[in-house]
Amino acid sequence: MKRAAYLTLACGLPLTAGLCAQNSSSSSDYQSNYQYNNPQYNSNRTPRYTGHSWTDHFVFEAGAGVTPAAGDTQHYANTGYNVLLGTGLKFNDRLSLLAEWNFNRMGVPHTLAGIIAGTPDGNEHLWTLDLNPKFNFIHGDRGNGYVIGGGGFSRALINFTVPVVFYCYDYYYFGYPCSGDVTVSHVSSNQGNLDIGLGGEWRLSPYDRGKLFVEARYLKLFTSNSALPPGKDATLVPVTVGFRW
Known about the structure:
Elements: H1 2-37, E1 58-67, E2 69-70, E3 80-90, E4 95-107, H2 110-117, E5 121-139, E6 143-169, E7 175-203, E8 211-221, E9 235-236, E10 239-244
Antiparallel strand pairs: 1-3, 1-10, 2-9, 3-4, 4-5, 5-6, 6-7, 7-8, 8-9, 8-10
């Protein structure tokens, strides 16, 4: 009888130890999985955008800003504003190729408008359609520093205007004075252009690939040698703030 008891005890101890070890291992695995899946235990894990979708190879952008003239163009154009729209392909984290439309609206100096056309005012519409490679020479999880440049086609349209006063009528045919500008003459030209610039972009959320960007470019239009605005080889410096996705 004693031998049977000792034999049972001897066989039970390893079994009990094994069950305890298994329970301890299961408890440890459960705690580990709970900590991994519970955000409050993941204070050291930084969420970030990984970009695994095929749609991440497409780029869309839109922005606006201020456009001052540079060099001799300052005698032909006042500071104006710009609008930028673009789309393209992202080859990797460093290199993209963008097709961009850039519109710049600037004013003609009053004295120049009076000398050329005998009008008190004028405006310039300068737009470009370019193919621009973009290279991120600084690449981080949330921010990039980049250089962008290229060239393409541009058009310059110059309008000379005079202010007029006329009567407007409401729904009840009540008349009241209105004012506006009437174009009395205009000139236009088509030419090539080059642009190059520097910029920075910052991801607003670690969960999304959309970025806020700020950039400045040097834009040169190969306009003809003429006394008319925007002058020979017009140069602009568009400064743009926008969103790139």
